[in-house]
């Protein structure tokens, strides 16, 4: 295994770093994706819900026709949106995404959350729908996003195809140790979303009544600043290196050329075992992405955590 990829349980290589694209407007995203591919990124993370698949498809097309990259060297991730989380609807949702992305297959297809609009659909049904897409070779790997351990276990109980990967909020202040251990045991790769702690997502912090209001952003952590000085790297690079060195995929979002390059420049140094240990022991906060729109849904993945916050 090269240090720049993770091997999924079906043998497919997944780049360890990718470009996040949520909240990035289409007009600037074409240039951002092209910068990323030119820099060496091979994984792009999107979702039908981000409304930017067409721009990403356009950027990929341009990069392929300019011979910057081959399709088979890219690893594109997209997600099935809530209203389509239904075994009879997931194929049409994926086909629509593929059409926008101008691709014949997706490298990884994720259920965006465990809460279908159709309340008769259970998480097990969502998985059966994903398995069908995998068997039809429309998706080279399949996985889940924003599922909790209980729901992942329910899927493992019925799965014919293993869960290849889960995409979850994970960063210095929310390291999800129990989830990591569980996924390692079951050979499920982890994609860490918001790996920089989503510093500019004031929306979530402001409107989420259950968030720890005193939370600070990981960039400003004294240990991160100390390590940045020691290695002549930026705080973002230390945050990403910590996760990569723990064999976690990271998908930092940026549309800024310099920061896209900066975030990829994390392979020329190594944190010591002691430094990794210190970073792993940093005091933890609550999650940032509570997905409050799922409150009240039977499959709300964060219901128990919300309750604990209230106690
Ligand atoms: N599955 C899900 O439900 C879910 C939820 C959230 C996110 N995601 C995925 O994960 C990706 C990343 O998460 P995120 O966008 O919330 O948070 P993030 O990657 O932790 O942080 C992105 C923010 O940090 C800034 N930034 C990026 N690199 C920087 C650097 N080197 N120095 C300083 N600031 C920097 C970006 O601004 P600039 O663009 O101006 O650089 C942006 O505002 C998303 O884009 C999306 O693809 C998935």
Automatic annotation (TrEMBL):
Gene3D superfamilies: NADP-dependent oxidoreductase domain. The record marks 79 as: Lowers pKa of active site Tyr. This is NADP-dependent oxidoreductase domain-containing protein. It comes from Panagrolaimus davidi. PANTHER family: ALDO/KETO REDUCTASE. GO terms for molecular function: oxidoreductase activity. InterPro entries: AKR, Aldo/ket_reductase_CS, NAD(P)_OxRdtase_dom_sf, NADP_OxRdtase_dom. The active site is at 50 (proton donor). It holds the Pfam family Aldo_ket_red. Substrate binds at residue 112. SUPFAM superfamilies: NAD(P)-linked oxidoreductase (SSF51430). Residues 24-282 form the NADP-dependent oxidoreductase domain.
């Amino acid at each position: 295994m090269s240090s720049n990829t993770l091997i999924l349980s079906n043998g497919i290589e997944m780049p360890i770093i990718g470009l996040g694209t949520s909240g990035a407007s289409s007009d600037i995203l074409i240039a951002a994706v092209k910068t990323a591919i030119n820099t060496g990124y091979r994984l792009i993370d999107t979702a039908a819900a981000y409304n930017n698949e067409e721009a990403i498809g356009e950027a990929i097309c341009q990069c392929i026709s300019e011979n910057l990259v081959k399709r088979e060297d890219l690893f594109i991730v997209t997600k099935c949106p809530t209203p389509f989380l239904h075994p009879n609807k997931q194929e049409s949702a994926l086909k629509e995404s593929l059409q926008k992305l101008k691709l014949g297959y997706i490298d990884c297809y994720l259920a965006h959350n465990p809460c279908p609009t159709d309340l008769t659909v259970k998480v097990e049904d969502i998985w059966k729908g994903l398995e069908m897409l995998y068997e039809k070779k429309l998706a080279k790997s399949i996985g889940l996003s924003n599922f909790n351990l209980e729901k992942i276990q329910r899927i493992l109980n019925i799965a014919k195809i293993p869960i290849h990967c889960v995409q979850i909020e994970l960063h210095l202040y929310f390291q999800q140790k129990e989830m990591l251990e569980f996924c390692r045991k079951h050979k499920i790769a982890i994609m860490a979303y918001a790996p920089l702690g989503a510093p500019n997502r004031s929306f979530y912090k402001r409107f989420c009544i259950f968030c720890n209001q005193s939370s600070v952003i990981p960039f400003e952590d004294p240990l991160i600043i100390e390590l940045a000085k020691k290695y002549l790297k930026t705080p973002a690079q230390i945050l990403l290196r910590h996760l990569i060195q723990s064999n976690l995929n990271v998908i930092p979002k940026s549309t800024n050329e310099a920061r896209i390059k900066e975030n990829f420049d994390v392979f020329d140094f190594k944190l010591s075992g002691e430094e990794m240990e210190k970073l792993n022991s940093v005091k933890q906060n609550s999650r940032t992405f509570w997905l409050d729109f799922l409150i009240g849904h039977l499959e709300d993945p964060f219901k128990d955590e919300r309750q604990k916050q209230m106690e």
